[in-house]
Q: What sequence folds into this?
C-alpha cells in the first residue's frame, strides 16, 4: 500500500510509522516481555486505576470522578491475540471513562501461541462475569454494560457476545467494535498479501490466526466462539456499532458481519473511516479522523447506555 493511498490529513505522519513484523515470534516475545513489565498507573488525571485478579489474568478498572453515570464498558485490547496488554489502552480507557462518566473494566487476557484458543475467550468471559458480580460495589447497573474492543479485541468482543447469548443471563447492552478481526478466512486469501496493508497486513493476520486457532486459517471447521464470522446464526445479538476503514484489511469482513447482523434482526451500524490504516487512532489520536471516530463511538454509547451529555452539549 502506497503512502498516496492514505488520507491527506494523516499521510505525512505515516511516513514515519512502520509496519511492525507482527508475524515474527521473537518480536512478539520481546514486545510482550516489555509490556508485561510496564508499571500500572494509580491514576490518569482524575480517573483512578486499579487492578483486580482473575484466575489467569487480571482486569484493570478505570473509575472517573463523580458523578458516575451508572453505566459501564468491558474493554478488550487488540494485538492479534498474540501481543498486547491492558496498559497499551490506558489513555484510551481513561478518556472514555472521563468523557462519558463510565466505569471501564479492561481485561488482560492470555495470549497465543503459549495460550491458544480457548484461553483468551475464557478470560474475557471471566472478566464479564467479574464485572457483573462486582457491579453493585462499582455503582454500575448490570443492564447498562456494553462490550467493546479494537482489532483482535473487537473480534473477541463479538465472540464473547455470542457466548453470553448462548449461556443466558444478563446480556450486554451494546457492542462497540473498532476495526474488528472477525474472520480467519481472510488470512487464507493469499492474493491479499501483495496489497501490503499498512500496520496490519495479511502476513501478520495469517500468523496470528494460526497461533490462536492451532490450525491454518480457513480450515473447514473452527471451534465454537473462536471466530465470530463463522457463526451461522447471528440473531438475538446486541445492538452493534462497527467502525472500519475502507482500506483496512478487515473492511470486507466487517461489512459482511454488519450485513449479517442486520439480516438476523440486530440493530447494526457501520461507521466508515476514509483511507486510514488499521489502528491509526492509536498512533494519531488527535487527528480529525480519530476525533470524528471517537465522537461517533461516543454517540453510539450515549444512546445505548442512556448517557447524558455534558453542560456544553459534549461528552
A:
Amino acid at each position: 500500500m502506497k503512502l498516496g493511498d492514505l488520507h491527506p490529513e494523516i499521510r505525512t505522519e505515516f511516513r514515519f510509522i512502520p509496519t511492525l513484523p507482527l508475524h515474527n515470534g521473537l518480536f512478539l516475545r520481546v514486545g510482550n516481555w516489555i509490556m508485561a513489565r510496564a508499571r500500572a498507573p494509580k491514576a490518569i488525571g482524575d480517573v483512578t486505576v486499579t487492578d483486580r485478579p482473575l484466575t489467569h489474568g487480571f482486569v484493570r478498572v478505570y473509575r472517573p470522578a463523580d458523578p458516575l453515570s451508572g453505566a459501564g464498558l468491558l474493554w478488550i485490547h487488540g494485538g492479534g491475540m498474540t501481543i498486547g496488554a491492558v496498559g497499551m489502552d490506558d489513555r484510551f480507557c481513561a478518556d472514555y471513562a472521563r468523557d462519558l462518566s463510565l466505569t471501564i473494566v479492561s481485561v488482560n487476557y492470555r495470549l497465543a501461541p503459549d495460550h491458544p484458543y480457548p484461553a483468551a475467550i475464557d478470560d474475557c468471559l471471566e472478566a464479564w462475569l467479574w464485572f457483573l458480580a462486582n457491579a453493585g460495589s462499582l455503582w454500575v447497573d448490570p443492564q447498562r454494560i456494553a462490550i467493546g474492543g479494537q482489532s483482535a479485541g473487537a473480534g473477541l468482543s463479538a465472540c464473547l457476545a455470542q457466548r453470553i447469548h448462548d449461556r443466558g443471563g444478563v446480556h450486554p447492552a451494546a457492542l462497540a467494535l473498532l476495526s474488528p478481526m472477525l474472520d480467519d478466512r481472510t488470512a487464507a486469501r493469499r492474493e491479499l498479501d501483495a496489497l501490503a496493508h499498512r500496520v496490519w497486513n495479511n502476513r501478520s493476520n495469517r500468523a496470528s490466526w494460526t497461533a490462536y486457532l492451532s490450525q491454518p486459517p480457513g480450515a473447514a471447521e473452527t471451534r465454537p466462539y473462536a471466530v465470530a464470522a463463522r457463526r451461522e446464526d447471528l440473531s438475538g445479538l446486541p445492538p452493534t456499532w462497527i467502525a472500519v476503514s475502507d482500506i483496512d484489511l478487515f473492511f470486507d469482513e466487517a461489512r459482511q458481519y454488519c450485513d449479517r447482523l442486520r439480516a438476523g434482526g440486530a440493530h447494526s451500524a457501520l461507521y466508515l473511516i476514509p483511507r486510514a490504516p488499521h489502528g491509526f487512532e492509536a498512533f494519531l489520536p488527535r487527528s480529525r479522523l480519530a476525533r470524528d471516530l471517537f465522537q461517533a463511538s461516543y454517540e453510539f454509547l450515549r444512546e445505548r447506555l442512556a448517557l447524558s451529555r455534558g453542560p456544553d452539549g459534549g461528552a
